[in-house]
Design a protein that fits this description.
5 strands; 6 helices; single chain; 5-stranded antiparallel beta sheet; 264 residues; alpha+beta
Length: 264
């Protein structure tokens, strides 16, 4: 019994590997064996708990690394990303989105300022008018996308908006909203369209120039061989031929300059 009392104190101090070394065949022996089994169970449970704690710590470390990795990516991509909770409060916003809607220096330089903010604190009222229907459509369909033309103080912003609704056990838990700035893309498409227009116009203008120039040359040759029966008529025709030739050359130079513009 004294050995059991000492073992109980040792285990209470955390020495779960402590065992009672008493051999007996009576009830005291059964009690000692039960005590030792209890101590073994406690020691095994502690080892399992320690192993689980290590695994949990490693998992948390990995999750934190992944979270930091994702945050680094989100902060360095040119696409605006906004995450909302079920009440449409901001849980994350990256710098690209702030630059899109708040390009003025010093305005929302730290995305953390907007954590917990409502949409009205992030977007101008005219943007919310088009944004709210997209959120409702995202609730119905799970994911939706659209293009928006937004008038901002600095000019027009063309964006492609993708909204994904997050759900947990059938209940809406939040949103992920992606804004892709299409302004440069649309500008490039317009430039390509103008290049094509310039090329086609230059081609269409050049086509009739050749027969006009040839006709003017034929008039000149004919006048050089003709008998001057009517000097006034010959002078008029010659003047017209020179005018045609001069105009053709002017249009030709214009077309060449237009072709140069198309290349630029």
């Amino acid at each position: 019994l004294s050995a059991l009392a000492e073992a109980t104190q040792a285990i209470s101090r955390g020495r779960l590997d402590y065992r009672v070394d008493v051999s007996s065949a009576d009830e005291i022996g059964d009690l000692v064996r039960s005590f030792n089994r209890m101590a073994e169970d406690l020691e095994g449970s502690r080892k399992q708990l320690e192993a689980s704690t290590r695994d949990l710590s490693a998992a948390n470390t990995e999750l934190n690394q992944r979270r930091r990795h994702m945050e680094t990516i989100l902060e360095n991509i040119p696409t605006g990303v906004l995450s909302l909770d079920a009440n449409r409060r901001v849980t994350h916003v990256n710098q690209a989105l702030l630059r899109m809607f708040h390009p003025e220096p010093g305005h929302y330089t730290a995305p953390q300022i907007l954590l917990g903010a409502s949409l009205s604190e992030v977007f101008p009222p005219e943007v919310l008018e088009d944004f709210e229907p997209l959120l409702r459509r995202g609730d119905r369909m799970g994911m939706t996308n659209s293009q928006m033309e937004i008038q901002l103080p600095r000019g027009t912003l063309n964006v492609a908006v993708t909204i994904a609704t997050l759900r947990h056990q059938g209940e809406r838990s939040g949103y992920v909203v992606v804004f892709e700035d299409l302004s440069d893309l649309l500008k490039g498409q317009k430039q390509a369209a103008w290049r094509e227009v310039a090329r086609r116009v230059a081609h269409e203008i050049k086509n009739p120039l050749t027969p006009i120039a040839l006709s003017a040359e034929r008039i000149q040759r004919h006048l050089d061989r003709a008998t001057p029966d009517d000097p006034a008529s010959l002078s008029l025709v010659r003047s017209s031929a020179e005018t045609i030739a001069g105009a053709v050359e002017t249009v030709r130079r214009l077309v060449d300059e237009f072709s140069t513009l198309a290349r630029f």
